[in-house]
Design a protein that fits this description.
This protein has 323 residues and is of the alpha+beta class. It has eleven helices and nine strands. It has two domains: 150 residues, Alpha Horseshoe (Serine Threonine Protein Phosphatase 5, Tetratricopeptide repeat); 153 residues, Protein Transport Mog1p, Chain A, CATH 3.40.1000. The radius of gyration is 27 Å and the shape is elongated.
Length: 323
């Protein structure tokens, strides 16, 4: 009878042990959802104290630490999660984001590789690996990742296909421009509808509301056989509506090329609703299925000579590609 009671007591202890850990885990998750990260961490710690094999508690605690920029703590907990379960996909992806958050891009790649190996359709893993591959010089691999992400239904993939690879839209035709990695460009916004597709680019440490240099790529779908002077004047007419004092300056064009192009500046000392200046250097090229209009801008009354030369050379590297 004594042995039976001992076994029964041990059984109750194990049951309460498991329940207690799970209860702390649930309490942590509730606080986690309310973005009470510090409070959630305390609950996850209690869950781990009760059950050192509670991989979900380790993982969730790491996620909270990552949200608080405690990279060392997050890394340790994601490591513990993986030690407990070598196929815990989210832990590999989250550990990769710890590296990315510290700008250790190459170090993040093995964890992203493992994430995709375990779950090829894991949300955002392909697009994140594609961005890192693009930034570290493997643009072929980057474009493969973006294309796979697109096929998996990732809505972000089109943006990166356009930025790094040339978007597979408009019957396979697109304009490819390799925005210099050294200038730290990032996507500010994007729009896409039946008439046009547009990407706005800014530097990584700036915002759409506060920028020093701005880039724009737009394709006008179905616009064909438009003379380059007409395209230039169309852009200028639109600018004049907002800035009556805007000045148009033609720089260069080639209408005999397979894909005719023109480069010009529109310099505005002020606008009707804004007294601040803005000047743009435009590159317009006619594709077979769309008109591609692109510009770079600074908040100055004129485009400085050195920028004019730099931007002109940059836009001349643009290529129409068909996939």
């Amino acid at each position: 009878m004594k042995n039976i009671l001992t076994i029964f007591t041990l059984f109750l202890t194990v049951v309460s042990f498991g329940q207690s850990s799970e209860e702390y885990l649930k309490s942590g998750i509730a606080k986690h959802k309310q973005q009470d990260y510090k409070g959630a961490i305390k609950e996850y710690d209690k869950a781990i104290k009760e059950d050192k094999t509670n991989k979900d508690a380790f993982y969730n605690k790491g996620a909270c630490e990552l949200a608080l920029n405690d990279f060392k703590g997050a890394m340790a907990d994601f490591n513990s999660t993986i030690e407990l379960d070598s196929k815990y996909v989210r832990a590999y992806y989250s550990r990769a984001t710890v590296y990315v958050s510290q700008e250790k891009y190459k170090e993040s790649l093995p964890d992203l590789d493992k994430t995709i190996e375990l779950d090829p359709e894991f949300p955002n893993a392909l697009t994140l690996r594609g961005q890192i591959r693009a930034q570290t010089g493997n643009k072929g691999g980057a474009c493969e990742d973006f294309q796979l992400a697109k096929e998996n239904g990732d809505k972000q993939a089109d943006k990166y296909l356009t930025q790094f690879c040339g978007n597979e839209q408009l019957a396979g035709e697109s304009l490819m421009l390799d925005w210099p990695e050294s200038e730290n460009w990032k996507l500010g916004s994007s729009q896409d509808n039946e008439q046009m597709a547009m990407l706005e680019l800014i530097h990584s440490d700036e915002t759409l509301e506060n920028w020093t240099e701005f880039g724009c790529m737009m394709s006008i779908k179905g616009a064909k056989n438009i003379p380059m002077d007409q395209a230039m004047n169309l852009m200028y007419d639109q600018a004049k509506k907002l800035s009556p004092k805007a000045v148009l300056t033609f720089i260069e064009k080639d209408e005999t090329a397979e894909y005719p192009w023109i480069i010009f500046t529109i310099e505005s000392p002020s606008f009707k609703n804004d007294k601040k200046p803005e000047s743009q250097l435009w590159y317009v090229v006619q594709g077979k299925t769309a008109l591609y209009t692109n510009f770079r801008a600074v908040k100055e009354a004129t485009v400085p000579k050195e920028l004019k030369e730099k931007w002109t050379a940059f836009f001349k590297t643009g290529k129409i590609v068909n996939q």
